[in-house]
Specification:
The chain has 265 residues and is an alpha+beta fold. It is 25% helix and 31% strand. It is globular, with a radius of gyration of 18 Å. A hairpin with a 2-residue loop joins strand 8 and strand 9. A seven-stranded mixed beta sheet has the order 1-2-3-7-6-5-4, with helices on both faces. It has a five-stranded antiparallel beta sheet with strand order 11-10-9-8-12, with no helix packed on it. Bound molecules: biotin (BTN). The site of biotin (BTN) has 20 residues, from helix 2, strand 3, strand 6 and strand 7.
Length: 265
């Protein structure tokens, strides 16, 4: 697996020598956070063959069976305040969508904020996590990405069957997880170079790929479910929603999940 990934990296890729492969882990994000807390450098990449406790946003799990998907985490150590990194999930989404398009030739949209959608089904998700140092600056961030590559629809648990798909079911292209890991590392390196200086450009790219904009949405917060229309994105990637009571608010990724009014999209 590791040599397959390295063979597809752009020559001289600085993260190649920091790549770690694990046949089976609880969660690559959980392990990445442990390694980062122990000092693992910027650009450390973890890839797993399967996860026994894959995690998603809002406390959900991420189904991570062996030999079917890519389970990937990247450790970043940008020198900045957390407020300068609010767009990290959007930036990672752009890189993920580009990598999938590189390998399949098919358009891959982003459902706000962290779902990659091909042909109307979720094929991948992103979980970003951050830790601060004693000066309240970013110590490290972990970008976790899970991609369904080879499943048939009947392979997904029943509760995911309406919304989930794989690159195989949605694009008809057989993508090897190792090749996707390399394409992601190539695209994420470009993204990382723009992360603090090219934020407006990254958000513009996210906006162009975001399939939620202009749609009627349900916004689920801890204590409420409200309906409205997604009007746009703010400079940090927050979703601007006009609710049915006439009020307009920016929804931040940490506090809410957004679905279509009548289902997943
Ligand atoms: C979501 O859909 O809400 C996000 C899913 C993120 C899953 C990936 S798989 C690799 C990394 N390790 C995890 O435990 N989660 C992320």
């Amino acid at each position: 697996m590791k040599s397959q990934i390295l063979s597809k990296l752009t020559p001289g890729h600085p993260w190649g020598e920091l790549l770690q492969y694990y046949p089976r882990v609880d969660s690559t994000n959980t392990l990445a956070k442990q390694l980062a807390a122990d000092g693992a450098p910027h650009g450390t990449v973890l890839v797993a063959g399967c996860q026994t406790g894959g995690r998603g946003r809002m406390g959900r799990s991420f189904h991570s069976p062996a030999n079917t998907g890519l389970y990937f985490s990247l450790i970043l150590r940008p020198s900045c305040a957390p407020s300068q990194l609010m767009h990290l999930t959007c930036a990672a989404g752009v890189a993920l969508s580009q990598a999938v398009e590189d390998l399949t030739g098919c358009q891959a949209g982003l459902k706000w904020i962290n779902d990659l959608v091909c042909g109307g089904r979720k094929v991948a998700g992103i979980l970003t996590e951050m830790s601060l140092n004693a000066n309240a600056m970013v110590d490290y961030a972990v970008v976790g990405i899970g991609v369904n590559c080879r499943q048939q629809l009947s392979d997904f648990p029943v509760e995911l069957r309406d919304a989930a798909g794989s690159l195989r079911t949605q694009t008809g292209v057989e993508v090897l997880p190792a090749h996707l890991a390399a394409a992601l590392m190539n695209r994420l390196l470009e993204t990382d170079r723009l992360l603090l200086t090219g934020k407006a450009d990254l958000i513009a790219k996210y906006r162009a790929r975001c399939i939620t904009l202009g749609k009627e949405v349900s916004v689920l917060r801890a204590d409420s479910l409200r309906h409205g229309t997604a009007l746009g994105l703010d400079d940090d990637g927050g979703l601007i929603v006009r609710f049915t009571d006439g009020s307009t608010e920016t929804v931040n990724s940490g506090e809410a999940s957004v679905r279509g009014l009548y289902g997943y999209l």
